[in-house]
Amino acid sequence: MEVSIGISNRHIHLKEEEYKILFGDEELTVCKPINQPGQFASNQFVNLKNGDRIIEHVRVLGPLREYNQIEISKTDARLLKLDPPVRMSGHLEGSAPITVIGPKGEIELKEGCIIADRHIHMLPEQAKEFGLEGVETVSVELKGEKGGIINNVYLRVAPNSYFEMHIDTDDANAHLVNQGDIGIIIK
Amino acid sequence: MEVSIGISNRHIHLKEEEYKILFGDEELTVCKPINQPGQFASNQFVNLKNGDRIIEHVRVLGPLREYNQIEISKTDARLLKLDPPVRMSGHLEGSAPITVIGPKGEIELKEGCIIADRHIHMLPEQAKEFGLEGVETVSVELKGEKGGIINNVYLRVAPNSYFEMHIDTDDANAHLVNQGDIGIIIK
Fold first, then answer.
1. What gap in Å lies between CA A14 and CA B24, rounded to an integer?
2. Are strands A30-33 and A40-50 parallel, antiparallel or unpaired?
């Protein structure tokens, strides 16, 4: 079956405490809602730093969360000389350390930097309809001149989800996939 | 069957005329031989430019060729705001324009910038041995945590080849593949 593709560029999720250190009194404001209900791209940006390596202008995603999490691609990781693990959102134990710089302050995180796993958001009723109840991962075919099949795509089945596959910019650029393109779920 | 993987970072091939404009009297010198016989990574570097976008420190591959060709990834292309086609080496008609800056001069190429196609170098006797005579493309399985299958991998069957698959940094980073890792050729 077909699934629409959302491409996640590098971004950061922040807790309230760390947000205040980085941004002071500046409010976290909505630039644009994203497809997952309640989530948004904000107008706030940070820089990511490791040693003498820096990536500038990394967007904060809102709303604020219960954990600090930085999602980057392997290409970004090589630039920063970091070796983040591939992880599901929120599973941060032993993930990579990173320094985050905001307009008002700087924080050194001992962990929090990951490469996000490939995943598909889906409602429980959709998992049932698609015959995917209890399935942990699927493969997804990507068409095109540099197409292929990507493995280990995790299913995130939850109420209040928007049905969509999230891949990072490395997966998208390797396969010449654009935002909103279609993948084919292979059980 | 198994094939060793070589990862091609962005690089440039130059004709003698353009090399001299960029480098003057400086000789093209060998930094390190690469696996394809006679080819080498040189000690010479250029910058790539399009409008106000620049990528610095791009290596010249030697020896000099009969055409100027710049091979970049889609990630690089987005940074440079270019839209190069996926092409086989030397097939440059209608490929992307780009400006190349050397220590002694600068050239504006009307075409020459491509995303190299995925390909496997192989001897004629190997193509025969593997049952791949006359086959144009194969798919290749990449193992690992972000593994998958890449399609449209072109066979380059020629004498004096070193058996190896070449993919770009986007394909490698998307699949967390390192230089010298093994892929499985699927007919």
1. 52
2. antiparallel
Round to whole Å and give the CA distance between A144 and B70: 22
> From its phi and psi, is residue B51 left (phi > 0), alpha (psi between -120 and 50) or beta?
left
The rounded distance, in Å, linking the Cα atoms of A125 and A90 is 24
B74 contacts on A by Cβ (under 8 Å): 173-174, 176
| Residues contacting residue B69 through CB under 8 Å, at least 6 positions apart | B12, B13, B89, B90, B92, B112, B114
B169 vs A contacts (CB less than 8 Å): 75
* Alpha-carbon distance values, A161 to A39, A93, A121, A137, B138 (Å): 11, 25, 6, 17, 37
Show pLDDT as tens, one digit a residue, over chain B (187 residues): 999 999 999 999 999 999 999 999 999 999 999 999 999 999 999 999 999 999 999 999 999 999 999 999 999 999 999 999 999 999 999 999 999 999 999 999 999 999 999 999 999 999 999 999 999 999 999 999 999 999 999 999 999 999 999 999 999 999 999 999 999 999 7
* Global pTM value: 0.96
**DSSP code for B146:** T
* DSSP symbol at A85: P
Q: How far is CA A4 from CA A79, A119, A141, B83, in A?
A: 29, 12, 12, 23
Is the bond preceding A37 in cis, omega lying within 30 degrees of 0?
no
Chain B residue with minimal CA distance to A150? B148
Helices (H), chain A: 16-23, 74-80, 124-129, 169-174
What is the number of helices (H) and of strands (E) in chain B?
4, 14
Please report the residues numbered 47 through 106 in chain B whose beta carbons come closer than 8 angstroms to any beta carbon of chain A.
73-75, 78, 86
> What is chain A's percent helix, strand, coil content, to nearest 5?
15, 45, 40
Q: Which of B35, B30, B3, B40 lies closest to B161, judged by CA?
A: B35
Note whether A146 contacts B176, CB cutoff 8 Å. no
- CA quadruple B115, B117, B118, B119: dihedral sign: negative
